[in-house]
Amino acid sequence: MPSTISLRFLSAGVAAAAAASAAVIWTTACGSEKPVIDRNAVLRGLADDVIVPSWKNLESSAQVLEDASGKLCAGPTDAALQSARAAWRQSRNAWFEGWAFHFGPAMDMDAKTRLDRSPIDPERIEKDEIGGTHEFSDTYMETLTALKKGFLAVEYVLYDSGQPANVLEKFTGTAGARRCQYLTALAKFNRTTAASIAAKWAPGGGNFANELAAAGNGSARYKLIQNAYDDLMNHNIMVAQKLSNTMLGRPSGLRDGVEPNPKLVDVWRSGTGLDDLRYGLKGLQLLYGGAPSSGAPSLRDLIAERNPEVDKLVTQDFAAAFRAMDDLKTPLHDAVTEDKEKVKTLYAALKAVYTRFQADLASLLGITVSVLEKDND
Amino acid sequence: MTDYDGVMRWLNRSVSGASLAAFRIIFGLIGLASAIRFAANGWIQELFIAPPMHFSYPGFEWVKVWPGIGMYVHFAVMGLAAACIALGLFYRLAAAAYFLLFTYAELIDQTYYLNHYYFMSLAAFVMIFLPADWVWSLDNWRKRREQSPEMPFWPLALLRAQLGLVYFFAGAAKIKSDWLFRAEPLQTWLQARTDFPLIGELFSWPAAAFAMSWAGMLFDLTIAFWLLNRRTRLPAYGAVILFHLITGGLFNIGLFPWIMTVLVLVFFEPDWPLRVWNFIRGPRAAAVTAHGQAAASPSASALALPHWGFIAAAVFLSAQALIPLRHHLYPGNLLWTEEGFNFAWHVMIMEKSGQADFVVRNPVTGRQRWVSPEEVLTPMQARVMSSSPPMIHRFAHWLAEREKQAAGVRPRVFAQVRVSLNGRVSQPLVDSSVDLAAQPFSLAPSRWILPMHERPDDRLAHR
Question: Which of A257, A308, A354 comes nearest B369 by C-beta?
């Protein structure tokens, strides 16, 4: 009898609680709208309208660099050098704008090591490559150490001798021909690497765009939608961290509490370090906001739907960081010593972007650390 | 006759030993599978050996990773002990060894705290004192022991109480405004799992998260009572299976759903394994008892719960009931401060992300530098630490100690941490002007944890 009574008591209690629950669910939940942003549609828009064009852009810019390098070698004039330099920067801009998308095929191919190893080894470049006699075949370039290829090696060849006249001087004579071969081989290697990654994203190639867009719906790479978001966001949290802590924090000395070291700006030879930061940040902005012309929903729409306040803050953070960049009037490697206050402002602004990605976006999207599959509870 | 005598008689009444034997075997096999899983997944290396530092628990700083291949040996012996538990071979020694080895591994690093690991520790501890090798064990063969297939009820009562407490407090932990009135973090998690088979589409509706939040709370709070009652036991067990199937499918919670699904069988009649076996064999087969023979019921009084045992069990269970409540002694939002959060069955009730940066300042030279957790910790450690005040505190001390060894001066360590809790806009978590390395470890509330402020936008705009 006591157990019957207690069971009745318990049943009555649970029935009352269930009724209360139903009432709360009805009044609280049903007042909310069903989210309209489809997470796969966000990935589809990102893949088709942002990432695939981004890799194509890198490929075409690398082609322009290769062509410009050829023209410089054919006729080492000041105009040809300026054209090659501009093409190099243009291609590097595309590379940095696409940094946000260096997951998937780019990660599989270790694109960063192939194209953007820092620092390079100028001494060995001069001695082994420009001073050598071997052919710069595709096979050779494939096996060449990252210390002697990629964007920074191209920059070294185009900028290291300082004034254009000095650079052009080195492109003359027998040694100049050798330097030309090296430069064009570097440019070609950049182009083929970019083309190969672009192909892996394209429908005719590996169609990784579809792998991403179909996450959780047939994708072999991403069994769950969440796996794709984890990959995307973990990578870009890292990008945001590198932009602030490594690319600005280290050369400015703000991270380590030491004197600024301009030579820690990767592209100090060309004096275009700020462009690296700017295009890296643009890539994050593209990831977040999607392509302006795209009709597909973006990550931003997804975040705004979940918490508009967070979206407002992300937008403000981006704007503040770009503003701080615009305020820097001198090249970054000079600014770290000559314009410390403005560099400090930029550092704080970039760190705010990083924090927003790491804390707010990761939380709203339920991102998990993907590097280690481990239980939770 | 006093009530106490009645309780003791109830606890010492004779029941089949089959259920306890099944519990022992299942527990041992889970322990063995868990040890093998750790080794096979490379987690011994990744979680214990590779990290340059570990987040010790206050008072357990002496619990360290063994040098060399020590951790592999540790897990091998743990697996062996678990196998011995399953076999009922040197049972008590195996149970004690498993408890010590498992708990030692669990205490090495706060990063890896999981409620089901805590449960395994508690269950292993309890099992040391249970006569779980009384039936179906190699110890019977080894000791040439002729014992009864029956035994007192108290071991099952103790295990039921232990399991019931886990569920009940997991339910009590869900009685929070975030869980009930914002349906967080379930809403965040469910909306990310619309690819879940069959019912995934429903997850995009806020009502689904609310319904599951409330149902989860009611389930946890009451399931033990339903399981205790014979009339409701079977449907309740169906609910257990459904609940753990869904949570196991939705979330990356490892063995936990399977552990709970099989261990709650202890709530069934003490002879349930025999009934299942006889059901499988069919009606024409002779009824089998725990001895595989016709039923016999000589006295198992040697196993009766002594008075001191009753008192010890009461103290143990009371502690189990009080420890999860200790967070009420601390000010602020528990999910924010995490003071009293662990060892309290706060199972999957928060989605928290943080970004932490530390300033290490030399008090003599005034020179300071920033340290990102990612520079020295594993990604998992960095991620968990960045939103956990106790771990932030521990990391600050470790940084100070490391710097002292390198520079000879113990630095001041400050932290800048922003954390987002359950979809809110991120806020500063700790007072960045406080030298965390100078703050002692104590049970007192940490004044350097900043309060979490509710913003109207977080409540109204979130969905």
Answer: A257
> How do strand B14-16 and strand B368-371 relate by DSSP bridges?
unpaired
Best to test chain B binding among A358, A365, A370, A371 (most B CBs inside 10 Å) = A358
Q: What is the pLDDT of residue A373?
A: 40
Which of B3, B116, B191, B267 is best to mutate for the A interface (most A CBs within 10 A)? B191
Q: What is the DSSP string of A153-199?
A: HHHHHHHTT-SHHHHHHTTSHHHHHHHHHHHHHHHHHHHHHHHHHHH
Query: Could you give the CA distance from residue A114 to residue A145 in angstroms, rounded to a whole number?
Result: 9
Q: Which residues of B260-299 are buried (b: 16+ CB within 10 A; e: fewer)?
A: bbbbbbbbbebbbbbeeebeeeeeeeeebbbbeeeeeeee
pLDDT digits (tens, 9 = 90+) for B118-163: 999 999 999 999 999 999 999 999 988 876 788 999 999 999 999 9
Topology match between the domains A53-205 and A225-365: yes
Side-chain-side CA neighbours of residue B191 (13 Å): 29
Interface contact A375-B115, CB threshold 8 A: no
Closest Cβ–Cβ partner in B207, B253, B367 for A375: B253
Contact B352 A306 (CB under 8 A): no
Topology of domain A225-365 in CATH is A middle domain of Talin 1 (1.20.1420)
Q: Which of B420, B421, B452, B454 to mutate to test the interface with A (most CBs of A within 10 A)?
A: B420
Domain locations in chain A as residue ranges: 53-205, 225-365
| Per-residue tokens: B424 | 């809110």
Contact A260, A253 (CB under 8 A): yes
CATH of domain A53-205: 1.20.1420.20
Question: How close B262 gets to chain A, by Cα (Å)?
Answer: 18
pLDDT tens for residues B398-455? 999 999 999 899 999 999 999 999 999 999 999 999 999 999 999 999 999 999 998 7
Whether B416 contacts B429, CB under 8 Å? no
CB A144 within 8 A of CB A226: no
SS3 annotation, B144-212 = CCCCCCEEECHHHHHHHHHHHHHHHHHHHCCCCHHHHHCCCCHHHHHHCCCCCCCCHHHHHCHHHHHHH
Interface contact flag, A307 B380, Cβ < 8 Å: no
- Per DSSP, the three-state class of A315 is helix
Nearest CA in chain A to B232: A7
